[in-house]
Design a protein that fits this description.
Blueprint: H1 9-17, E1 27-29, H2 31-40, H3 43-64, E2 69-78, E3 83-84, E4 89-91, E5 95-99, E6 105-109, H4 114-121, H5 128-152, E7 154-155, E8 159-172, H6 176-242, H7 248-283, E9 291-293, H8 310-315, H9 318-339, E10 344-355, E11 371-379, H10 385-452, H11 458-493
Helix pairs in contact: 2-6, 3-6, 4-5, 6-7, 6-9, 6-11, 9-10, 10-11
């Protein structure tokens, strides 16, 4: 019985590359669109932007620290007691002068004073009373004078106000300000590099998920076609069995194979759903979103024909640049530690106002005019053993970071070389898979013609169909592997290069 079968090289091309029809409302995303959606969504991108802004402001702050600082300070204090420069009672050779609790003054002549001796010597004479009167008058004058001095030398500390407006300018800090600025600048660069590295990482993940969806879609189409071929074969063998030209055993084998193909078809459908959900999650789409992807680039892998310059590629790797900035930060940290062993010079100037003020004695009023002050402070460290040890420790830490940077360079060189080699191997796999797939398609075509002519059995045709299915699947796997290896190498080289 002569039957028509749809097989041939054109069939293989259609199965692998052609796009099946979709509903009008199904959205198709390209690789560029998926990358853009992934980069524009999520908290990670915004977090990196905030870190970059913080690093930028820290760098500006480190630069601003080199310029003068202007400040206005004010202090108010309430005190329950005043300051008395004179005691409330003073004793001398002539007597004791003091101030009573009510604020009145007093003076008591001592027995050894001249006035007391004179009064005793003139006792009983007519001059005694005048001398005693003079003694009392002099004592009262001394008491009044002491009281006035006591009051004048009492500072009203009930309300104390001190205000200052001034400017401070560091002149020399041993290089501390310069090193702080270098550290802040390197930190800002690291934040920018980390943001770019994060974007490259996101793109690499999207590429991997995207080509996985493409791969599963292609395999799903192959499973559909393989299932369709077995269904057609089952129908033909059923007719042959009814006509007595095939056995029930042949029909049973075909039905078993068709059942296995149906299971593979279901597995492919489930895998396609899961792979689409993974891509949707990376792109910020709902997990239930229905979409397709553009598979036209699957066969357009940029395959290398020669080795790349790994050293030049590694020099542009963000991981190495971050390590180099970390080394620069460690060196600046060591120099910052050495700055504590250097002299520091700081100049300052300002205007000070106080109440009580000392413009004309010590007065508690608001009529003072304040005063200007200016000066230079020089600090010269002499013996700072702890700072010396910290400086030595910082130098060793910087050396350790330098060694880590060199190790990173070697690892990245190895990584880049391996990625390039994997992509070159993918080229060979694709060539082999394409040849195998062409041979399998030709074998299938001949097997179908032979089966239609009754020259071979259904089992032999199923073997040809299975071999074709396996070869076509291997080609899709090789092409997908090449795209993923290409994405990994582009991540190392730089997606924008």
């Amino acid at each position: 019985m002569k039957r028509k079968f749809f097989v041939g090289w054109c069939l293989l091309c259609v199965l692998i590359y052609a796009q099946t029809g979709h509903a009008d409302d199904t959205i198709q995303y390209t690789l560029a669109a998926c990358r853009q959606m992934a980069l524009s969504q999520g908290c990670t991108n915004r977090s990196q932007q905030e870190l970059q802004k913080a690093a930028e402001l820290n760098r500006k702050a480190a630069l601003a620290a080199m310029f003068p600082k202007v400040a206005v300070n004010g202090t108010y204090m309430w005190n329950s007691e005043n300051i008395h420069l004179l005691a409330n009672e003073e004793t001398s050779d002539i007597g004791t002068a003091g101030v009573n609790a009510d604020g009145t003054g007093y003076f008591n002549w001592s027995g050894n004073s001249f006035m007391s001796r004179l009064a005793n010597d003139l006792q009983g004479t007519r001059l005694q009373q005048p001398i005693m009167d003079a003694q009392d008058l002099a004592g009262q004058q001394i008491a009044n004078a002491y009281q006035q001095m006591y009051d004048r030398l009492t500072i009203d500390m009930t309300h104390v106000v001190v205000a200052r407006a001034g400017v401070t300018q560091p002149i020399y800090t041993g290089g501390a300000l310069t090193q702080n600025y270098k550290i802040a600048k390197s930190t800002e660069h690291v934040a920018a590099l980390q943001s770019e590295a994060k974007q490259d990482e996101v793109i690499a993940k999207v590429d991997e998920a995207y080509w996985r969806v493409v791969s599963v879609e292609q395999k799903h189409r192959l499973a559909d076609e393989y299932y369709r071929l077995l269904c057609k074969l089952e129908s033909d063998v059923t007719e042959l069995a009814n006509e007595g030209m095939a056995t029930q055993s042949d029909l049973l084998k075909v039905r078993t194979k068709r059942g296995e193909a149906e299971v593979k078809k279901l597995q492919a459908e489930n895998g396609l759903t899961l792979s689409r959900m993974a891509l949707a999650q990376l792109c910020g789409l709902p997990l239930s979103a229905v979409f397709t992807v553009d598979a036209s680039g699957l066969e357009q892998t940029t395959l290398v024909t020669e080795k790349i310059d790994a050293e030049s590629v590694v020099a542009n790797r963000k991981e190495l640049q971050i390590a180099q900035e970390a080394e620069a930060i460690a060196r600046s940290t060591a120099k910052l530690a050495s700055a504590t062993l250097q002299p520091t010079i700081v100049a300052s100037a300002g205007y000070v106002y106080t109440n009580p003020n000392m413009e004309n004695g010590v007065r508690s009023d608001w009529k003072g005019h304040g005063f200007f002050s200016a000066g230079v402070v020089v600090n010269v460290p002499i013996a700072h053993a702890d700072d010396i040890l910290r400086y030595k420790a910082a130098k060793h830490a910087a050396n350790a970071v330098a060694l880590k940077t060199e190790e990173t360079r070697e690892l990245l060189t190895l990584q880049t070389t391996q990625a390039n080699q994997r992509l070159m191997e993918s080229q060979q796999k694709i060539a082999v898979a394409q040849l195998t797939c062409r041979n399998a398609a030709e074998v299938l075509r001949m097997a179908e013609e032979s089966f239609a002519s009754g020259m071979i059995s259904s089992s032999e045709l199923m073997q040809a169909q299975t071999a074709w299915m396996s070869a076509a699947t291997d080609l899709v796997d090789a092409q997908t592997e090449a795209k993923m290896n290409e994405a990994k190498l582009l991540q190392y080289i730089g997606f924008n290069n």
